[in-house]
Amino acid sequence: MCSRKKMWTGGNSEPPMWKHSEGFGSQFYRVKELEMELLAVLGCALLLPTVLGEDCPSQCSCWSLGEPWGTGVDCSSRGLRALPALPRLTRILHLHNNSLASIPTGALDSLGHLQELRLWDNPWHCDCHILYLKLWLQDFSVPALARLHCASPAPLRMKPLGQLTGNDLGVCARLLPTKCLQFFWRDLFLIAGAVITLLLVAWALKLSKKLVCQLHLGSRRLRRSIPKTHKVL
Fold first, then answer.
1. Parallel, antiparallel, or unpaired: how do β-strands 4-5 and 231-232 relate?
2. 59 near 86, Cβ under 8 Å?
3. Any idea what the Cα angle at residue 136 is, between residues 134 and 141, rounded to 5°?
4. Interstrand relation of 61-64 and 71-74 (parallel, antiparallel or unpaired)
5. Which is nearest to 162 in space by CA: 136, 201, 194?
6. Helix axes 16-53, 181-225, angle to 10 degrees
7. To 5 degrees, how large is the angle CA 110–CA 131–CA 190?
8. Whole-angstrom Cα distance, residue 119 to residue 93?
9. What phi and psi values does residue 146 have, to the nearest 5 degrees?
10. Cα–Cα distance between 135 and 181 in angstroms, integer?
11. Which residues contact 204 (CB under 8 A, 6 or more apart)?
């Protein structure tokens, strides 16, 4: 007694299982293509907030310190009278030798990665509006504060900012954060980028789940459609 597998005798036409295999193969490659498109969409979504939030000010020059080290921004000797909107990941910032008289309240609070700041050679006007910069530098860098001197008003000319007292400035009301338009638009773009990213990620997860289900159903149908082999006694 011997056994052998049942052979296909359908002439030159291909066995049904081969046809189903080819159909499943094309479906498999289509799923792979969709997965690659999905990865590309996710990559763009993850990069979007970074692109929106890392524009270099037009008056300055910037250079990358490499990920995750951040950005260097050189705004020195540009004749600046106001602080420009700065990249969120600024680590080095040069603002010396400009025409800055004060820094808007809250303007430096978002620079959590900042490690080097140059502010000397600016005509600082020492009134209540200089308090924010003085207090901020006391926490950030006392040596940097020691290099700054008042240019006006006349009674305080050349006095170090670090030595200013309440008697010098008079009675200062609590200053509210300045709502500078350029900072508002930058924050608005960052928020919009974050919302778009979340929407794209949610859509990508939904599409990924759908592709996995289609692939699973396709494999089950293929197994059911392949004729079983029989042994002939």
1. antiparallel
2. no
3. 90
4. antiparallel
5. 136
6. 170
7. 15
8. 9
9. -65, -20
10. 24
11. 38, 41, 42, 45
Residue type, 227: P
State the amino acid at position 108 in one-letter form.
Answer: L
Q: Closest by alpha carbon to 30, among 211, 233, 170?
A: 211
Backbone angles phi, psi at 37, to 5 degrees: -65, -40
CA–CA dist 158, 70 (Å, integer) = 35
Contact 158, 149 (CB under 8 A): yes
| Spatial separation of the C-alpha atoms in residues 46 and 30, rounded to whole Å | 25
The answer to whether 84 touches 57, Cβ cutoff 8 Å, is yes
Tokens standing for residue 30 = 């289509």
Other beta carbons within 10 angstroms of residue 10's beta carbon come to 8
Tens digit of pLDDT for each residue in 108-159?
A: 998 989 999 999 999 999 999 999 999 999 999 999 999 999 999 999 999 9
pLDDT tens, position by position, 41-57: 555 545 444 444 468 99
